[in-house]
Amino acid sequence: MSQADGGKGKELYRDAGVDVDKGDRLVDWLQDSGTNHSRRRGEIVSGIGGFAALYRPNLSGMQDPLIISSTDGVGTKLLLGIENNKLTGLGIDLVAMCVNDLYCVGGAPMFFLDYFATGKLDERQFQDVLTGIKDGLKKCETALIGGETAELPGLYGQSHFDLAGFVVGIVDRAKMLSATHVREGDVIFGLKSSGFHSNGYSLLRRWVKDNPKMKTYIDQLLIPTQIYSEIPDILAAMPQGSVKAIAHITGGGISGNMERVIPDGLCANIELVKIATPPWMSEIFNLNNVTRMEVESTFNLGMGMAVVVDANLASNFEKQAAAFGNNMGIVGTIKRSVNSEKVRLLD
């Protein structure tokens, strides 16, 4: 094919709604932006721009390294961000929703890939979102190793886009966290959330639509999801085995996520009064005539992570969490189960 024919092909594709040159420019922008933040966990061998990315992990000091992975999106919080022209935080949300899951098994992220799909590629939108992704990855020392940008006219409306994230990490099997380690008498610590994170936004958007007073809370609703990058350092500072399990409080709320880290025969007894719900979050519940108990299966109520810890080392964990400015204290205990229930919420 001649160069002229190739140019005509690009023009035909552009007429159909897909601008290949614009996509190439944005890939070049990403390559020049410096996105390898995970030197202590490995290094990029070949990253953005190729057909596939290569990464050399650092396995030193690990007895039995396991590769771990997670994928997630931002959900309908995207629509709220688009409607209010606040997009950078959505990139942080995407990173957080993926890497926080890795922390729950005691691991740490190595590298991340994103998928950005839109009807018509808007360079400002893309750069705002990817700036947020890069900011989030810097916080958790994770490399942006690749991704995909798709222009899909006809599938997405004007100015609309969707996001997906994919993260790969590593954990030493000997230090892996799971429900199998949880015992009767263990205590449950809460780590503060930054807000609603990225869950329950179909309900929140309906409240915004139905209640004019909700407009005053848009900034709070778009606070980015907390990235719990301090967890690997806290775990490293604690005696091995003292932290048993971690639950990331996402869709399904406290009850739906805590039961994933509780073994049969035991029950997490959680006192809602000990969960420090932000005042503005409580105001939103009051505005919409719901109680915390009524919406706990949808929202995190101010607790983004729940950590099960050996009771004998509770004070040690509390000091470590406080050092990182994230200390809600003990919110519950592990007891024997009644009627096979794994989570009991006490209001």
Description:
This protein folds into 2 domains: 3-175, 60s Ribosomal Protein L30, Chain: A (2-Layer Sandwich), CATH 3.30.1330.10; 179-346, Alpha-Beta Complex (Phosphoribosyl-aminoimidazole Synthetase, Chain A, domain 2). Helices cover 33% and strands 25% of the residues. The protein contains 12 helices and 12 strands.
Using brief descriptors, characterize the structure shown.
33% helix; Phosphoribosyl-aminoimidazole Synthetase, Chain A, domain 2; alpha+beta; 60s Ribosomal Protein L30, Chain: A; 347 residues; 12 strands; four-stranded mixed beta sheet; 12 helices
* Strand order, largest beta sheet: 8-10-7-11-9-12
> Globular, elongated, flat, extended or rod-shaped: what is the shape?
globular
What is the N-to-C order of secondary-structure elements (H for helix, E for strand)? HHEEEHHEHEEEHHHEHEHHEHEE
Relevant CATH superfamily of the largest domain = PurM-like, N-terminal domain
Tell me the fraction of residues in β-strands, as a range.
15-25%
Put simply, the count of helices is: 12
The SS-based structural class is: alpha+beta
CATH fold annotation of the largest domain: 60s Ribosomal Protein L30, Chain: A
Question: Quick gist of this model?
Answer:
It contains 12 helices and 12 strands. The chain is α+β, with helices and mostly antiparallel strands and about 350 residues long.
